[in-house]
Amino acid sequence: xxxxxxxxxxxxxxxxxxxxxxxxxxxxxxxxxxxxxxxxxxxxxxxxxxxxxxxxxxxxxxxxxxxxxxxxxxxxxxxxxxxxxxxxxxxxxxxxxxxxxxxxxxxxxxxxxxxxxxx
Length: 119
Hints:
Blueprint (H helix, E strand, L loop, with lengths): L3 E4 L2 E4 L4 E7 L8 E7 L6 E6 L6 E3 L7 E6 L4 E6 L8 E8 L8 E2 L3 E6 L1
Parallel strand pairs: 2-11
Antiparallel strand pairs: 1-3, 3-8, 4-5, 4-9, 5-6, 7-8, 9-10, 9-11
């Protein structure tokens, strides 16, 4: 199983930007999908975005389209989440996740990193 470690969270004012990083413990297969989820206080964890191994296929939740960008550097076994035009409602713990090719669900999870957007 791949071990994932997030970094880059913090406190930012509304309208600001943050970039999250997620480092995988080892090289992943070409079918390995990586994604970001988030969980706000009192709410269920929700999907934010995902990317395939080659970076040619990405998906975004409607709430972040046009503001967030996911990317990956396979040479560094790292996936990034660039978050721009942040809003207070983006405040949450952000989790990196990985899904093996053919799996129906993400099976590897990071410990999470807190993002707080002040108004």
